[in-house]
Amino acid sequence: MLILKSVDALLEHIKDVQTNIKELSSDSLMKMSTYMEKNGLEIDDDIASSFQYQDIITQQLDASIEAINSMRSSIEVFSHAFKSDEDLANGSLQKLQDKLNLALQEAKEKKERFSGKFSQAEDANDEIEFF
Amino acid sequence: MPLVIFVDDSETALASTRMVTNAMPIEVKQYTEATVALAEIKAGMTPDLIITDLNMPVMNGLEFLKELRSHGATSRTPTLMLTTETKTELKVQGKALGLTGWIVKPFNPAQLKQAITRVLRLPA
What we know:
The complex is a heterodimer of chains A (about 130) and B (about 120). Chain A is mainly alpha-helical. Chain A has one domain (about 1-120). Chain A has helices at about 1-40, 45-85, 85-115, and one strand at about 130. In chain A, helix 1 packs antiparallel against helix 2 and helix 2 (about 45-85) packs antiparallel against helix 3 (about 85-115). Chain B is α/β, with parallel strands linked by helices and about 120 residues long. Chain B has a 5-stranded parallel β-sheet, with helices on both faces. In chain B, helix 4 links the parallel strand 4 (about 80-85) and strand 5 (about 100-105). Chain B is globular, with a radius of gyration of 13 Å. The mean pLDDT of chain B is about 95. The interface of A and B includes residues 30, 56, 120 and 126 of A.
């Protein structure tokens, strides 16, 4: 069980670091945008993209934080089962593994989904899609 | 001037759209929550164009769109989705709800301006 406690502590640490990165990257760009708007500076393609990268970074980090929360919750359920009944724990170990794999799979899928144009082929159509 | 509202939970995304559109002949209002924008619409605000993000907490872009379509004054208001999402299934859902178009982030400033100009029929 000690190993699971270490894994849980590591996941918590990763989550904290990711939350800090989100806040810092947002703060830095908001300071830049305040400066640009205050001084009437025009935005070009590169600057517009850099502002939107922050949004993509945030969504990617949110998806992995969601996976971490799910994994920690599964670990907690397993730990309780292990304490109460060893037979139950053996079955729970398989369930834990399945849940951890599922959380990871969902996080990977969201990484692709939330990548915007970065997930598309370089020659993909860059036009806005009107319906 | 036509009223364009932007809804996005990302402050930096809103900052970029604000800077891109500040020289356009439009009035811009921005919201970090779709529920707040919806409340103002139900209170009488009549936007000419709505540009919304998809993945947002509380109410996502498709839920927002559904609410807009069920509200008389915005049942036909042009609405663009501005999102990191590229999933065809979600585009199909948006289209079925009467979405006008889909813009994938990071957008190109010139393209966003062209889309607004085109939808609002502004002089080029």
